[in-house]
């Protein structure tokens, strides 16, 4: 499974201290900052100061600046002259085409270089399914966001096509903040139930060694989820 970041300051500093080489240090900083943005630790509009982050991570500003530049290229940050580096806002309309492309890429996951369904892969999905059961019993916005990100990375394991995985990951992180920003509290329990049901359905398909079915289930839920997001936004605008 992908090594997902713990974004706490102490853990990040330790991981950076133990990193082997500049590339690994860059990847740690990039992943941690991206994770913080996408779980709204840094909500839209937050100004990220290079000096403060460099001090927190215990690094020079040069490698940190590289991570910030890549995040800007990903659409998660924006540099404004005289202001600094800001976390971008989430615009559902602007991301509509990204969602359309994600629909197609999710379907390809079941057909391009499909992974071998072995015990290790089954254990990853079973672990996600167990976490989903806990979340369903105790809906929580932060845990919903965390499980959404973690399940994405497990789902990525269904294909061994690296270009597909790379593109899917970039597009996922452009859109995943939408759920935290648009789901009203009154709809959280229902959205958690739907998402946990999706994980259960996909896990069943993987256990049946039917990766195409798993990919189609993911695609269908992504499509339905986008339509629900539009409804949530309309309700919020009226309120």
Instruction: Say what the CATH topology of the largest domain is.
Output: Four Helix Bundle (Hemerythrin (Met), subunit A)
Number of domains: 2
Distance between the termini: 41 Å
Strand coverage percent: under 5%
Structural class per helix/strand content? Answer: mainly alpha
Radius of gyration: 18 Å
Spans of at least 5 consecutive residues with low confidence: none
Topology order in helix (H) and strand (E) letters: HHEHHEEHHHHHHH
Instruction: Please give the largest β-sheet.
Output: 3 strands, antiparallel
Could you report the average pLDDT, rounded to the nearest whole number?
A: 90
Care to describe what's here?
The protein contains 11 helices and 3 strands. It has a 3-stranded antiparallel beta sheet with strand order 1-3-2. The chain folds into 2 domains: 79 residues, Winged helix-like DNA-binding domain superfamily/Winged helix DNA-binding domain (Arc Repressor Mutant, subunit A); 143 residues, Up-down Bundle (Four Helix Bundle (Hemerythrin (Met), subunit A)), CATH 1.20.120. Helices cover 70% and strands 4% of the residues. The model has no long low-confidence stretch (mean pLDDT 90). It has 239 residues and is mainly alpha-helical. Helix 6 runs antiparallel to helix 7, helix 6 runs antiparallel to helix 10 and helix 10 runs antiparallel to helix 11.
């Amino acid at each position: 499974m992908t090594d997902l970041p713990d974004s706490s300051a102490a853990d990040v500093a330790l991981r950076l201290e133990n990193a082997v080489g500049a590339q690994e240090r860059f990847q740690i900083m990039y992943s941690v900052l991206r994770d913080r943005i996408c779980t709204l630790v840094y909500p839209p509009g937050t100004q990220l100061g290079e000096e403060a982050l460099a001090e927190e991570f215990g690094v020079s500003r040069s490698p940190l600046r590289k991570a910030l530049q890549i995040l800007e290229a990903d659409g998660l940050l924006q540099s404004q002259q005289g202001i600094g580096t800001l976390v971008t806002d989430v615009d559902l309309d602007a991301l509509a085409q990204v969602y359309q492309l994600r629909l197609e890429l999710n379907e390809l996951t079941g057909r391009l270089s499909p992974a071998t369904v072995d015990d290790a892969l089954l254990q990853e999905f079973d672990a996600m399914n167990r976490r989903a059961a806990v979340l369903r019993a105790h809906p929580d916005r932060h845990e919903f966001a965390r499980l959404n990100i973690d399940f994405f990375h497990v789902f990525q394991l269904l294909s061994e096509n690296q270009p597909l995985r790379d593109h899917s990951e970039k597009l996922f992180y452009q859109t995943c903040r939408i759920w935290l920003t648009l789901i009203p509290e009154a709809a959280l329990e229902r959205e958690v139930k739907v998402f946990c049901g999706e994980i259960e359905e996909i896990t069943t398909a993987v256990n049946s060694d039917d990766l195409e079915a798993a990919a189609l289930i993911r695609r269908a839920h992504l499509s339905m989820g986008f339509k629900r997001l539009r409804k949530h936004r309309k309700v919020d605008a009226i309120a």
